[in-house]
Design a protein that fits this description.
It is a single chain. This protein is of the alpha+beta class. The protein is 36% helix and 16% strand. α1 packs antiparallel against α2 and α9 crosses α12. The protein starts with 12 loop residues before the first helix and ends with a helix. It binds dinuclear copper ion. The site of dinuclear copper ion has 9 residues, from loops.
């Protein structure tokens, strides 16, 4: 009954399933037995035809009490004994086990082998041999879970933990992070590949990837790091705003910081921003809270990333079909597409709920007070101004959190009009 566990792929899996199924079956049995008896008695001894009837007075039964105390106690001892025994078996790792170091970081898994081979969000082990994973984290708590192997362990910053398993079947298995660790927790996935020993040896001794990597230009390595280190989650390459500034034309960009000082995004500024992200935040990103990459990116890595930034002088070509389709849209539809593309709906709901910013439901024509006490009416002029210079008129009760990045480069006047047309439909 109730067998929903994924296929077993390690030596310990059948044992874990056995005790897991035993506990499930016992729980189901007692739930049904107790609730069933309760229902039966409730119906059997209900008040009939409006007449109460006296029940006989029954005194306790010592035999019954001894039975229902001793039997569950024995069952609990049995479960505890086997639980501990199986756990011990899982924690005892043979000395010749293959060791792989695993580092969790928001939101990726990195693997490193004894010969220096490194992999990213994917790792390979041989079938039939015990693998020991030494886990740690470079930022927050993560948890490493391979359902098919029936192993799970927390990856804790500043500390090592381990888990071990012996795969009995080659194949590809899913790895999950099972500790909520921030925005992209649910995307923190990795693949485990179990190969026959000979194939594994070939993979392990294959250095072509490193040779290829060594042959890459710094900018190419930087592009790879942009994806692997998670930069792309917050920094776009096409000029569109995300949580952080876009990297399009970022190198030598000039602007103002949140404290009003001027900055030039030269090599030193960029490096400092990677290591101490919150020291010099550009205007409009006062509420950005970027994690430091100190200890995660080497000096060489940072140089590679900056080399990549230098190449970002033009937005990647958009597919033409996309533009053509947009040209055919009604202003309202186009406004709706834009509000999703530019990230407006990340902070402004359309159903009346309060997110970071005011909801767009019923926004057109709405009036109220600004943080500085002035009155406002959300007409075309006011909304356009709020998009272009969001911090100059923050609505009362909201944080000044909207980035000032929707200039004419990002949204044309026609785009803004279409967004307003879309707002008008949100009643
Ligand atoms: Cu890492 Cu959830």
């Amino acid at each position: 009954m109730f067998r929903f566990l994924p296929p077993q792929a390690s030596t310990v899996a059948p044992k874990i399933d056995w005790i897991h199924n035993l506990i499930t079956d016992l729980s189901v049995f007692f739930t049904v037995a107790i609730c069933g008896a309760m229902l039966y008695f409730a119906i059997r001894y209900r008040k009939r035809n409006g007449v109460d009837h006296e029940t006989p007075r029954i005194h306790g039964s010592s035999l019954l009490e001894v039975v229902w105390t001793v039997v569950p106690t024995l069952v609990c001892i049995f479960i505890a004994y086997y639980g501990v025994a199986i756990y011990h078996e899982m924690r005892e790792v043979p000395a010749d086990a293959l060791t792989v170091n695993v580092t969790g970081k928001q939101w990726n898994w990195d693997f490193q082998y004894e010969n220096g081979k490194k992999t990213h969000n994917e790792f390979v082990v041989p079938v039939g041999k015990t693998t020991k994973l030494v886990l740690t984290s470079s930022d927050v708590l993560h948890s490493f879970f391979i359902p098919n192997m029936r192993v799970k362990r927390d990856a804790v910053p500043g500390q090592y933990s381990y888990l071990a398993f012996t795969p009995v079947q080659s194949g590809e298995y899913q790895v999950y992070c099972t500790e909520y660790c921030g925005d992209s927790h649910s995307a923190m996935l990795a693949k485990l590949k179990v190969l026959p020993e000979a194939e594994y040896d070939r993979w392990y001794n294959d250095r072509s990837e490193e040779i290829r990597r060594a042959g890459m230009t710094p900018a190419q390595r930087g592009e790879k790091l942009y994806v692997e280190s998670g930069c792309q989650g917050c920094h776009s390459l096409d000029g569109s705003p995300r949580v952080g500034p876009s990297w399009l034309k970022i190198y030598m960009r000039k602007g103002k910081l949140t404290d009003g000082a001027e900055y030039v995004a030269d090599d030193n500024y960029l490096k400092e921003s990677i290591l101490y992200p919150n020291n010099k935040k550009p205007e409009g990103f006062a509420n950005m809270n970027m994690p430091s990459f100190m200890g995660q990116l080497s000096d060489d890595d940072i140089t590679d990333l900056i080399s990549f930034m230098k190449t970002l002088k033009e937005a990647p070509a958009k597919p033409k079909a996309d533009d053509a389709a947009k040209a055919k849209m009604s202003p309202v539809d186009h406004g709706k597409v834009l509000s999703a593309e530019k990230g407006c709906t990340g902070c402004h709901s359309i159903d009346g709920s309060k997110l970071v910013g005011p909801t767009w439901k019923g926004i057109y024509g709405k009036s109220g007070k600004l943080a500085d006490g002035k009155e406002y009416v959300a007409n075309d002029e006011y909304i356009t101004h709020s998009i272009r210079e969001p911090l100059s008129q923050v609505v009362e009760g909201y944080p000044p959190a909207m980035p000032a990045i929707y200039g004419p480069d990002s949204l044309s006047d026609a785009d803004v009009k279409d967004i307003i047309e879309y707002m008008k439909t949100l009643k």
